[in-house]
Amino acid sequence: MSAETKPARPGVSDLYRAVWRWHFYAGLLVLPFMITLSVTGALYLFRDEIDNWYHADLKRVQVQESTRLAPSALVASALDAVPGNAVKYTSPADAGAATEITVATGDGRIAVYVNPYSGLVLGAMPDRSSLMWTVRTLHSFKYFGTFARYIIEIAAGWSILLVATGIYLWWPRGQKGGVVSVRGKPQRRIFWRDLHAVTGLFVGFFIVFLALTGMPWSGVWGGKVNEWANGHNFGYPDGVRVNVPMSAQKLDDLAKTSWSLEQAQIPESTGSGVAFTLDDAVARFEKLGLHRGFSVGLPQKPEGVFSGSVYPDDLSQQRVVHLDQYSGEALLDMSYADYGPMGKWLEWGINTHMGQTFGLLNQLILLVACAGIVLLAVSAAVMWWKRRPSGSLGVPPLPQDRRVFRGLIAMLAVGGLLFPLVGLSLIVMLVLDTAVVRLRMTGRAASA
After folding, report:
1. Which residues in the chain land under pLDDT 70?
2. Are 383 and 191 in contact (CB under 8 A)?
3. Cα distance between residue 169 and residue 293, in whole Å
4. I need a surface site. Which of 82, 193, 363, 420 has the fewest CB within 10 A?
5. 216 in Cβ contact with 225 (< 8 Å)
6. Which residues lie closer than 8 Å to 374 by C-beta, 6 or more apart?
7. DSSP secondary structure string, 30-80?
């Protein structure tokens, strides 16, 4: 008897069967992605620690008592080693950090690391090619192109469905075991069922939180919300963008930036005459109080500006300042406090998602959550393998009364309206499920 026709155990309602069936589908689609996201996400939580260890020969220097060299001297050293056009200067985040100079060459942008005390070039590598940048692009699936980012958006939506249906299935209906305890031994399926249920109970909140706070990076939903939340694609909240000429260049083209400012356009200098030097600009940014480790995008044309930006773990210290390259006047000076309510909420969620808001505690809690998600996926696979009939996928049985699907589909439709790609995938899955069931019924009728 197949899984489609095998009767469910006594006492199992039609609604339970319907929820179980869609929980199975959600897991089938999402769990492989959840394992990948959990492993890469757990690594990225400790990106600074790992990068500073793995790239210590480039990123770390011996602290010295001597005064650091002027930024212009460090840029000159970098250009001697890697000829090209300097486009960004990143100041050391601490006394033992190297200075990073980004140089545009015929082969692309190169990050050159220079000892800030001696001017010695420590080495170079393609810009944004460090170990943790690679992990970041793998985590977001950006590594595999735009289409893969759409898949991540779908997976995030289905993971929320997975948690919602999982809570319904876990809900105690008179039973005592398997609620917060694990019964049996690993050889038995009930052990894996209870392990899956209990683990899901404790990590379900984190799955939903990480899915929602990860949505801003998604292809369709994230891009549209970014555009809507940031003042019609200007990136600056209403009332903050000053009345100066704006270039077509975006802040994200110059430096690492917050999600809220990825669409931020860069103002243009309106003066003329003798331009500020990089040394003058860095001194000005330091006087304005930018957090250590800030980056400076260098002007590349007469109307260009010095763009100082920094996005440390402390949200209150996020800041971007654009200086007129002739007068040194701040054309725009914006911090986290200037964001609108949605921008603040989104940035807080993203910051916490990345393990930054609460320091080491934030990192450790999310590390445990990531391990729990992997355990959840593994236990689901083992439980399914022990349950599935031989030669069958083991799809949970259909409810006797198909009308029960109406309410479930209505709830799914609400989620589909909020997240269009998720809604589209739900429709595709519903059509496929219906087609397979009808095909099987037709086959049975023909063989009868």
Report:
1. 1-12, 227-244, 254-256, 407-408, 411-412, 443-444, 446-448
2. no
3. 49
4. 420
5. yes
6. 34, 35, 38, 39
7. HHHHHHHHHHHHHHHTTHHHHHHHHTHHHHB----SSPPPPHHHHHHHHHH
Does domain 62-129 fall under CATH 2.115.10.20? My reply is no
pLDDT digits (tens, 9 = 90+) for 233-263: 455 565 455 456 777 777 777 666 777 777 7
In the block, residue with structure tokens 């505690």: 361
SS3 333: strand
What tokens appear for 109 in the block?
A: 């942008």
The two three-digit tokens of residue 77, written as one number? 């050293």
Rounded-to-integer distance, Cα 109 and Cα 55, Å: 18
Domain residue ranges in the chain: 14-43+141-218+362-447, 62-129, 238-338
Dihedral (C-alpha) 158, 345, 321, 230: value to the nearest 10 degrees?
Answer: 60
Contact 181, 198 (CB under 8 A): yes
Type of residue at 248: A
Task: State the pLDDT at residue 438.
Answer: 79
Separation CA 92–CA 174 (nearest Å): 60
* Helix (H), strand (E) counts: the chain: 14, 10
Reported residue count of the chain is 448
Residue 50 phi, psi dihedral angles, 5° rounding: -70, -45
By the 8 A CB rule, do 319 and 290 touch?
yes
Give residue 230's pLDDT: 61
Amino acid at site 111 = A
Q: Which pLDDT score is estimated for 354?
A: 95
Return the amino acid letter for 60.
R
Question: Checking DSSP bridges between strand 330-335 and strand 265-267, what pairing results, if any?
Answer: unpaired
Taking Cα atoms as reference points, which of 110, 108, 104, 106 lies closest to residue 58? Answer: 110
Whether the CB-CB separation of 421 and 223 falls below 8 Å is answered with: no
Nearest one of 109, 107, 146, 114 to 128, comparing CA atoms: 109
Residue 366 CA, chain-centre distance (Å), reads 13
CA nearest neighbour of 89 among 114, 64, 126: 114
Residue bearing tokens 């075991």 = 177
| Torsion over CA: 217, 222, 226, 227 (sign) | positive
Place of tokens 């500020």: 276
What element of type H or E holds 351?
helix 341-353
**Paired strand residues for 324:** 305
The token pair at 243 is 């009345």
Q: What is the pLDDT, as a whole number, of residue 157?
A: 85
Q: What is the crossing angle of helices 47-54 and 131-139, to 10°?
A: 140
pLDDT of residue 251: 75
